[in-house]
Amino acid sequence: MNNKHSVLVVEDEDVIRSTLTEFLSGEGYQVAEAATCADSLALARERDFHVAICDVQLPDGDGIGLLRRLNEIQPDVFVLVITAYATVENAVEAFKAGAFDYLVKPVIFDELIKKLERLWEYRALAVENVNLRSELRLHREFDKIVGSSKVLAELQTTIRKVAVTNSNVLLVGETGTGKELFARAIHAAGNRTDTKFLAVNCGTRPADLLESQLFGVRAGSLPSAQTDQAGLLRHAGGGTVYLDEVSQLPLSTQAKLLRAIEYQEIMPYGGSEAVAVHARIIASTTRDLAREVAEERFQEDLFYRLDGVKIRIPPLRERLDDIPELVECFISRHSQVMGKRVNGATSETIRLLMSAQWKGNVRQLDNAIERAVMMCEGTMIEPTDLPPDLLGLGQPLPDTDDLRSALRHYERLHISRVLRQWPDKREAAKRLKLGLSSLYRKIEELNIDL
């Protein structure tokens, strides 16, 4: 007996339904009962079930159709079909629809218990398999997130915690920080790992095209729609839909998205009947959504729906320790694509890269290394291979051969970079291995803007 297992009994004959409910309750199961398809679907939307035991013939439908609807609402539910006729056709149809097994009326309790015991064993193996595959896929996705800094490790810990929930997620961060990469990691680490991940940029399409892409189109409602088009939210099934730059959604589209989140249903363009959707929403933005709400460019209700689980993706300047690993990764990728034998970057190049501002974050670094690999004539990237306007505080290196001037310039860049990363001057001095008074003297001598 396991009182953590929940069972839904769907049977229109009162005697059979009540007898099954009483027996299963006595065996320690949590049992809910329904006499119609409509009642059972309403229960399935309100709570989760491990098993559904469904009669084939019901007043408002059949058990095979109900089975398919239940699997849409709860993909993890196992269904046992009850039939009065143990025919091969019935069994084949039930299994094709996704049934785990079937029972023949009158139901024999010993047979029911044996089938349930086999179901739990199968379910335990299936869950273990899914967890192992999820962990493997998670490692593959995390392998794409390069770096070992403390801030990145903390972010990955947060992702693991959020991923196992079904909550919608909002990723906020500057352009180029890799928000879609982290969205894919959340998808891979959750219980939807074997489902679709579909992405759409909300700011690159006209409003009507974006709505049809998200919510679908009924055949004939548009000249280009010769057949029904499901739309991403429905096509994703129980997977994930990633909305990049969600702040750029038109207000009318925001209202429809809010309804999809609140009621898990959408109205396709040209449709007259709502369609159920079960996809998880992961949205991202580079803008301050609270300000967008205040300026009436973003719906307040939708903001609160998305803002509940918010993850900030740090800019590259907050994870400078990851730059050497990122550089190594990008050099390997671009040198392979270009067919060049570039093995790495010199220490001076790495130091200069770590002193740059990186307003475009990881994407800008990737582009800079691609250009450097292209320009590199040897096996190691030199500072001269980097984009001229990249280095320093938006300044090129000094156009001088004087070593003292060049060292003074680099000293200013390096101290400025450390002070940006560690605003506390005592901590900055400690990092620079200077006395606090020496740091203040350097700030004054080098005219460093704080």
Tell me what you see in this structure:
It is a single chain. The chain has 450 residues and is of the alpha/beta class. The protein has three domains: 121 residues, Response regulator (Rossmann fold); 170 residues, P-loop containing nucleotide triphosphate hydrolases (Rossmann fold, 3-Layer(aba) Sandwich), CATH 3.40.50.300; 128 residues, Helicase, Ruva Protein, domain 3 (Orthogonal Bundle). The protein has 18 helices and 16 strands. It has a five-stranded parallel sheet, sandwiched between helices. A five-stranded parallel sheet has the order 9-10-13-8-14, covered by helices on one side. It has a two-stranded antiparallel sheet with strand order 4-5. 31% of the residues are buried. About 1% of the residues have low confidence.
Describe, in short, the structure shown.
The protein has 450 residues and is an alpha/beta fold. It folds into three domains: 121 residues, Response regulator (Rossmann fold); 170 residues, Rossmann fold (3-Layer(aba) Sandwich), CATH 3.40.50.300; 128 residues, Helicase, Ruva Protein, domain 3.
